[in-house]
Description:
By secondary structure, the chain is an alpha+beta fold. The protein has helices at 11-18, 33-55, 66-78, 87-104, 106-110, 112-127, 132-155, 158-171, 180-267, 272-301, 323-329, 354-374, 414-425, 450-453; strands at 336-343, 379-387, 394-401, 429-434, 440-447.
Amino acid sequence: xxxxxxxxxxxxxxxxxxxxxxxxxxxxxxxxxxxxxxxxxxxxxxxxxxxxxxxxxxxxxxxxxxxxxxxxxxxxxxxxxxxxxxxxxxxxxxxxxxxxxxxxxxxxxxxxxxxxxxxxxxxxxxxxxxxxxxxxxxxxxxxxxxxxxxxxxxxxxxxxxxxxxxxxxxxxxxxxxxxxxxxxxxxxxxxxxxxxxxxxxxxxxxxxxxxxxxxxxxxxxxxxxxxxxxxxxxxxxxxxxxxxxxxxxxxxxxxxxxxxxxxxxxxxxxxxxxxxxxxxxxxxxxxxxxxxxxxxxxxxxxxxxxxxxxxxxxxxxxxxxxxxxxxxxxxxxxxxxxxxxxxxxxxxxxxxxxxxxxxxxxxxxxxxxxxxxxxxxxxxxxxxxxxxxxxxxxxxxxxxxxxxxxxxxxxxxxxxxxxxxxxxxxxxxxxxxxxxxxxxxxxxxxxxxxxxxxx
Length: 455
């Protein structure tokens, strides 16, 4: 037999949960012009209704002077002004006002306008109280006091004797299930339960609605802040990406131009054909640099569809298919290059995603640039390995040269930083440094997701 896992809660716990006694949230309030308007309108309406009631002769039995009656109504109505600023204080003053006026001028206390005012006071005491526990103590005390006063009037006060004398002549005409006096007492008790219960429960419902609205507002602000932060991070990431692209493009092509221009200068008079070939390489590298930089500028202007100036479309970004050309362009009179692609399964290289291919291309480009600018190497080899079928599928690029650092040259470090950032963006492992047997190695291994390897 299965048992419910919901813990049993006592009545006290249910009451504490409903009234949120442990909730530290404070409903924002304060004295505003609206409160003064409410007090003024309530005062005018109450005084008018008092005089209309007087016109019906309902106040003839009162011994209190007329100005006292009007003053009692005005004081009760003006309590509404502070119902949001001092909710519990006003609730206590409202209960005291109800008791004093009810004892001395019951006809004034019982009129419709005053009952509405008392209801609003008790409602506001629950809805606007700063501390939920203090509210429970104060309003609980008010309710107990009011029902004790009602019980005293019914049981030991003059109210019961007067009630019997008033209702006795009509007792013979009553055909109800209960005696006339009993019916009156129960009806009065039920009416007061509904009156005070409605004020307290309604006030708590109002407080909970305000609390929920505040939570939704906080969530909306949090979402807006997070969206703004994500947007800022996206912009920063894009700026870093473009900075890496620009560095790779400029560093690579400018180094090629410099080396080929130097070679052309040395053989300009002794070997004109070689000088012409070197200058042709300078021209090709400069064109390629301009084309790639224009592509990046086009991405900045219109990243949605790749239109740079409204007339021409961005050139496609380089990838694995361009590696052989890139490695071949790096070869000079004093530097030989080699490129090899190793595939565990046929076509694995072509199935790699474009962003990964671009990352590998830029890593090779940066490594070759460093060899030309900072190494004494006369040979550099580039190997790309792809194995999408193993236990840990991977794509790896390795650039190895046979030189040593060239004296008097030192880079900014941005190139290798870009290599590490590209690897980190795809959870790649980087190995950069001199080899034990001589030379320098740049190796990056990217893990492949199953969907990338099986694409």
